Amino acid sequence: MALEKKYYNYIRICVVIFYLSCGSSTYSQEPTRDVRKKTSIGICKYKIFYTCRFSKDTIKKEPLYDKHVLKIGDTLSHYSSMLADKADSVWYNLRETFIQPNKNGADGINPYEKAGLGQNECPNYEDVFMGYPYEGISTVMTRIITKEFIYEEPVPKFKWKILSDTITISGYKCKKATTSFRGRDYEVWFTPFIPIRQGPWKFNGLPGLILKAADTKGYFEWIATGIEKSNNEGIYIYRFDKVNMQKTTRKDVLNLLNKQWKDPIGLMFYVNQEILGTGYKDEKTGKLVLVYRGDTYNYQKPYIPQLELE
Q1: What does R_g of the chain's alpha carbons equal in angstroms?
Q2: What pLDDT does residue 240 have?
Q3: Where are the chain's structural domains?
Q4: 94, 132, 253, 310: which has the fewest C-beta neighbours closer than 10 Å?
């Protein structure tokens, strides 16, 4: 039993150290969502696929990519990362394999590599449900390191300015619109020929599906890559116990994400001390230091761009 726990904990600490070395906002979290624990909340009629490009810092602006899907039902929708789902499945299989005492090779396991993700691919662990649990309400589920945080808010209302510019995306003629939302300015392209008043992430309210969106500073971009009619596929939400799920507010989530670059070690201890080994507070900086296998980790990450700044 001790050997099983040793291998399992080592896999987890490798992933957490990997989390410290890359990622942005809710990206690159530890993939521990149990893919078997889902509850159906609706039926999907259409699926819109997007490639999301984002930056992991504001200095180099090195691009990372994720593959997202927007599932549209009659009364609700679900926007999520397909790479996150893929990593979850692989991670769960790794747990089943490497906690067995007769297995070797646990050291250095990277579930993202095992899932076939490229070096510039990074999953986003933020799910956005529109119209759930009630009409006019949005539910956001965000994973920060090893813990899920969930909050509800009214479906965001955007003040759109529709312009005369047009382009063609994936064969659809699109019109340009601009907006400001929670500290960022955006330019989007929507097509009135697909009467779905939504788009990637939290964008909604235009008279047509949004096929492209980007912030004006170049940190985030979404581009539609495909549209499918679904054959009564389910829309699901993950189930978590009280230990791994915390109900909170959007403001509290933003505070935690700010801590991610200001004091990442402190954030790790706040979320889940069990996997971190030991730690102590640096008297000079007041920040927490992680000690693992004789190595210390204490640093401030470059400023991480977040979608919502306020």
Answers
A1: 20
A2: 80
A3: 2-297
A4: 310
- CA dihedral sign of residues 172, 177, 182, 185: positive
At which residue do the structure tokens 């004091």 appear? 263
DSSP label of 302: P
HSE toward the beta carbon, residue 207, CA cutoff 13 A:
5
DSSP state of 22: S
Q: What's the number of CA atoms in the CB half-sphere (13 Å) around residue 297?
A: 23
For 124-155, give one letter per residue: b (16+ CB within 10 A) or e: bbbbbbbbbeeeeebbbbbbbbbbbbbbeeee
| Tokens 């102590």, residue located | 280
Q: What is the pLDDT of residue 96?
A: 62
d(CA 199, CA 212): 8
Tokens 């927490």 belong to which residue?
A: 288
Q: Are 126 and 200 in contact (CB under 8 A)?
A: no
Q: What is the pLDDT of residue 26?
A: 56
pTM (2 d.p.): 0.81
pLDDT at 90: 79
Q: What pLDDT is attached to residue 54?
A: 93
- Starting from the edge strand earliest in sequence, which strands make up the sheet with 278-281, in order? 278-281, 288-292, 295-297
Q: Which long-range contacts (CB under 8 A, 24 or more apart) does 230-233 make?
A: 230/44, 230/45, 230/46, 230/47, 230/71, 232/43, 232/44, 233/43, 233/44, 233/47, 233/71
Alpha carbons 124 and 65: distance in angstroms, whole number: 9
**Bridge partner residues of 180 (DSSP):** 185
Token pair 């040793």 is found at 6
Residue 89: what pLDDT?
A: 81
Report the C-alpha gap between 189 and 2 in whole angstroms.
55
Instruction: Give the span between the Cα atoms of 72 and 235, in whole angstroms.
Output: 9
Quote the CA–CA distance of 240 and 98 in Å, as a whole number: 23
pLDDT at 281: 64
